[in-house]
Amino acid sequence: MLDKDNTLEYNYKILSQERKKKKISQENASTQITLSVSQIKSLENNLDSGFINDHFKILSLKRYAKFLEIDFNKIIPPKDTHLDEYIAEEQIVGEVEDDLPLDTPPKQNLKISKIGTLIGLTILGLILTIFFTQSNKDKTPDPEIVIGDVNIAKEALMDNDVSAPVNKDFIQNEKVATVSKENAQEIENKSNIIPIEFLCSIKSASMDKIWSRANPEKPATYFHIISQEKQSICTIDNRGIFKQYDLSEGQKITHRGEAPFKVQLNPSISELYFQGWKVILNENENFIQLNPVKMNTEINY
Fold first, then answer.
1. Nearest-CA neighbor of 228 among 269, 168, 186?
2. CB 232 within 8 A of CB 253
3. d(C-alpha 242, C-alpha 234), whole Å
4. Number of C-beta neighbours around residue 115 at 10 A
5. How do residues 75-87 score in pLDDT, each as one tens digit?
6. What is the pLDDT of residues 269-289, one digit of tens each?
7. H or E segment at 222?
8. From CA 269, how far away is CA 227, in angstroms rounded?
9. What is the pLDDT of residues 32-53, one digit of tens each?
10. Would you say the pTM of this structure is higher than 0.85?
11. Residue 56: how many other CB atoms lie within 10 Å
């Protein structure tokens, strides 16, 4: 529960407006970003429930904004004091520099270039005339220039985790410099798309389902899960021990601890087992509490 004196001020109406414009239900949004429906309603109406403090609410707002493709600055202006306090550490270093064209020179070099141009205009004109005359005679590009530009393209590819062989015809093309920079810029633009990351809110969220069986067949000291697709889950047991798992497609895990267990997962791609029984997971039930039942150890003759 948020302290009413510290309630975060933000443009919450844009969230529901954009969600309805995209024809997405609150339940569907809840499943996609692994927040409870009550937390979605809290974000869309700026309620005092659903989050333990403003920090977790801002993280959830960022996650919801990415999902709805909303500029986060439209929700909370960059100069907002809450934003500065809680998510300053998440600012991307060099964000301004990444928006500049690849061939933008430093300010100091611009000044030097301008002075040099004014002083040696006649000399530079003569050099350029000779250079273009020579280029028309020999269309083969300067090897040093080509190699430099190819290296720029390779570095851009490596920085963006893209592996592709360099075509020899590409190196021999006299337009290699332009092509390399355009490809590098295109790759850089694609790399700015940040995937939605998993946000665990199991400690503060209300449970969508509380599950137990009257006739357990296994002890309540663990639960078993099979992930049908890649996902992240988190859990906390009765002793407050927290654990997060990043699961790959088809991965199986057994988590041990002291019941009851609280589990946050994607129900549509998960198979959950507790005390020897499969837990029936319905759509939008992202937060499950597994309550233990004592096993009957009496032997009937």
1. 269
2. no
3. 7
4. 10
5. 988 765 444 444 4
6. 999 999 999 999 998 899 999
7. strand 222-227
8. 6
9. 999 999 999 999 999 988 888 8
10. no
11. 20
Here the tokens at position 8 are 């975060």
Which residue is it, tokens 């810029």? 185
CATH 1.20.120.1200 fits 4-91, yes or no: no
Instruction: Look at residue 232 in the predicted model and tell me its pLDDT.
Output: 95
Do 250 and 228 touch, CB atoms closer than 8 A?
A: yes
Q: Please answer whether residues 36 and 205 qualify as being in contact, where contact means their C-beta atoms are separated by less than 8 angstroms.
A: yes
φ/ψ region of 136 (left if φ > 0, alpha if ψ in -120 to 50, else beta) reads alpha
User: What does the chain come to in residues?
Assistant: 301
Residues with Cβ < 8 Å from 32, sequence gap 6 or more?
A: 67
List helix spans (H) across the chain. Answer: 13-21, 26-33, 37-45, 54-68, 72-75, 81-87, 95-98, 107-119, 121-137, 143-159, 168-172, 176-191
What residue has token string 């040093």?
144
The domain locations on the chain are 4-91, 96-138, 141-200, 209-290
The C-alpha angle 205, 207, 213, rounded to 5 degrees, equals 155
The answer for residues whose C-beta is within 8 angstroms of residue 108's C-beta and 6 or more apart is none
Partners of residue 236 on adjacent β-strands? 242, 262
**Per-residue pLDDT band at 181 (split at 50, 70, 90):** low
Both tokens assigned to 162:
């893209």
The 10 Å CB-count burial string (b at 16+, else e) for 1-11 is ebeeeeebebe
Looking at this protein, which amino acid is placed at residue 72?
A: F
What are 124-170's pLDDT values in tens digits? 777 877 776 665 555 444 443 333 444 434 444 444 444 444 454 54
Sign of CA dihedral 39, 41, 44, 49: negative
Judge whether residue 19 has pLDDT over 70: yes
Q: And the tokens for 208? A: 């969508």
Question: Do 290 and 263 contact (CB within 8 A), yes or no?
Answer: yes
Q: What is the CA radius of gyration of the chain?
A: 29
